[in-house]
Every structure is written in structure tokens, then in C-alpha cells.
Amino acid sequence: MQHKTVIKVRGYHLDIYQHVNNARYLEFLEEARWGYLEDTGDIQWFSQHNLAWVIVNININYRVAATMGQTLEVYTRFSKVGGKSAVVTQEVRIAGYDAIAADAQVTFVCLDQKTGKAVAIEGDLRQRLEQHLAE
């Protein structure tokens, strides 16, 4: 499943050069991941299973500057489920333009909230995550 989150660029998102500050893109990506998890019911499922997502790596490419007043569309989808980690691919597009402002590969592990340790992605957890690949 690919999920879309819409974000309007505001003045407080900008840096001295009047385009979106690089650190803000990380916030936009996080907002989109939360929206994805809410819309799929995963927040509730993970909570019921005492699991949490923990980001362990983000690789981001900045492509085109976004500026105040533009609308950004952040597309989020699962791209890989491994034995210990999974990858979410995200793309920030400038609405109305044929332009990608940024794209990222976000790797996370699932943490057992009781032990504080990463768990293997197997059983119900694997099934839950892999269903996102098929959609």
C-alpha cells in the first residue's frame, strides 16, 4: 500500500535561503509514517503486542528545493521486510510540479517494550509487516 500525506510549507519550515530546511524533511517524513501507521491500524496492533518501531537508519536525498506556500505530498510504502529489520521508502513530491523534493529509505527494527531489545521479524509480526508489501 502506498500512503499519501499532504503538508503545506509554512514560513517556520524555511531556512535563511527561503527554502525548506533539510532537518524539516525528517519531520515531514516522520509525520507521514505516523499517518500511515494510524490509517492502517498498526499503531493499535503494535501497542497491543508491546512492540515499538525504532528507526536505526535514514538515507535521504535532497533533490529540489521546496518553498513557502507549496504543498508537499509525502508518499510512504514498505519496500523490504528482513529477518531483523524492515525498510520504508518515502518520497516528497511538490504538488502541481513534476518535481521530487526528497526521497528516503528508512530502516527500522521492532523493539519489545518490556525488554528494550529488538525482536526477530517472524510469526504474526512478519505477517503483519509483509501484508504491506503485497498491497
Automatic annotation (TrEMBL):
Belongs to the 4-hydroxybenzoyl-CoA thioesterase family. Gene3D superfamilies: Hotdog Thioesterase. This is Acyl-CoA thioesterase. It comes from the Bacteria. Coiled coil: none annotated. The keyword Chloroplast does not apply. The keyword RNA-binding does not apply. Keywords: Hydrolase.
